[in-house]
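Usage

Read records sequentially. Each one opens with the input sequence:
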Amino acid sequence: MPKREPSKSLDLALQGGGSHGAFTWGVLDRLLADGRIDIGGVSGTSAGAMNAVVLAHGLRVGGREGARQALRGFWSDVGRAGGAPFQLSPFAALFQHWQISGSPVQRLYDVFSRLVSPYQLNPFNLNPLRDTLERHVDFDALRSSERPRVFVCATNVRTGHPRVFRNAELSRDAVLASACLPVLFHAVEIDGEHYWDGGYTSNPALLPLVAESDPSDLMLVQINPVERPGVPSQAHEIIDRINEISFNASMNQELQTLALIKEALREGQASGESYAGALFRRIDGLNLHRVEAQKEMAGFSASSKLNPEWGFLERLHDIGYRAAEQWLAEHFDDLGQRSTINLLGDVARVADVPGLAEREDKS
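and closes with the structure output:
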């Protein structure tokens, strides 16, 4: 009987991106199928928050296989709820372009939504995800559990600051707040404050996950393309690219913070016994990883994030599954040993910090 490899612990940071969250479902499905990965904590925003709570619920009730079944059940329900608000043309569906930006209904709504708010367009605040979450997640059980640690981020409308909901604060409304696009839904009220999509401020929240979870390895599951070729010229293309840049900006800012703290620690400039000191020590030993499919995901317009057709969700799942499979084949042995991305180099490109690009992250 072959010797079973020991499992390795990993934290997960899950980006938001509407129906593109099915890519993350595929990544999670492959990690869970592997059997060598233990998930210590998970941070998610918007669709990433939904994946996070469904994953945590499934792990709690049925281990890895229970989590796989829970995620498939959730996304199947999303696909059945299907009938996207902006249907694909038969031509686009036939050639699997999966874009809805050319739909006449979408174009009409795009103009209309800039003139009329969701409080007028959707006065009863209908949201099909409300019931879907209730069917697939036992929030009472999650609030009483500490494993895995879950962090869900939303944006406070009044202050513009991120609000991170931890296990004891998790609820259906916290997840809906994290996924509340202000042009589609009413702001979600929780304890007298109102919240919009967490992607505007933390997509996803990294620092609480690093500070409060145990594993020394953090994997970012990145949905939103960092780069796109060319310059958008059509109105909807410009708006889509602005949204992509905005939803990557908060993540880039947190990565920059992590990189600069690690550099300060390496040079002996940061210490202390406070919460910040503990955070710094955790960051000092942090190994950072990323699963993405930049080329494939850049092939879908941002408008396709509003397309929940089951065929599209399955395709995204398969792209994510293959991306995770390739990552495991190339980097499983690196877990617990080293980062598989050059964090300082990434920050140098994002933040244009002189001198960092040539310095490899040795952690």
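Summary fields computed downstream for this record:
- Confidence is low (pLDDT under 50) at residues 84-98, 353-363.
- The chain has 14 helices and eight strands.
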